[in-house]
Design brief:
CATH superfamily: HIT-like
Domain HIT: 6-113
Mean pLDDT: 95
EC number: 3.-.-.-
Order of helices and strands: HEEEHHEE
Active site: 100 (tele-amp-histidine intermediate)
Shape: globular
Motif (Histidine triad motif): 98-102
Bound molecules: guanosine-5'-monophosphate
Keywords: Hydrolase
CATH topology: HIT family, subunit A
Radius of gyration: 14 Å
Low-confidence stretches: none
Helix content: 25-40%
Strand order of the largest sheet: 1-2-3-5-4
Largest sheet: 5 strands, antiparallel
Length: 114
């Protein structure tokens, strides 16, 4: 059995976090090290899936719920436009192996992908 992820520890109240929105199966929190004016991570309460590829194969409805929560967070905290990033694998920068979406919003036009 692997150690609980940092997101599971947040859900369990062991680590504080600023929750900005939640649904039955997913939670959105402010990222501790923001890379954009709005930087929120959205993840399922269930830690079964390590990355977005596993989630898409195993529970596409839950992936849809995460995208919907990301959309409502961006509408609430910014102008509704956002970038949605899933890192998949350590080589792509993934550090937390509990699937999560980065919602990046506000002032993105100057960034390298913009
Ligand atoms: P990854 O690199 O796995 O795609 O993204 C993990 C994200 O989780 C990073 O952006 C990192 O800043 C964020 N993170 C890691 N630990 C914590 C924490 O304890 N609290 C919060 N709010 N975010 C965290």
């Amino acid at each position: 059995m692997s150690e609980p992820s940092v997101f599971t520890r947040i859900l369990n109240g062991e680590i504080p976090a600023e929750v900005v929105a939640e649904t039955e199966n997913a939670v959105a929190i402010k990222d501790i090290a923001p890379q954009a004016p709005v930087h929120v991570v959205v993840f399922p309460r269930d830690a079964t899936y390590r990355d977005v590829v596993e989630l898409a194969a195993g529970d596409p409805a839950l992936l849809t719920e995460i995208v919907g929560l990301a959309n409502s967070v961006a509408a609430d905290l910014s102008d509704g436009d956002f970038r949605l990033v899933f890192n998949r694998g350590a080589g792509a920068g993934q550090t937390v192996f509990h699937v999560h979406a980065h919602v990046l919003a506000g002032g993105l036009k100057e960034s390298s992908l913009g």
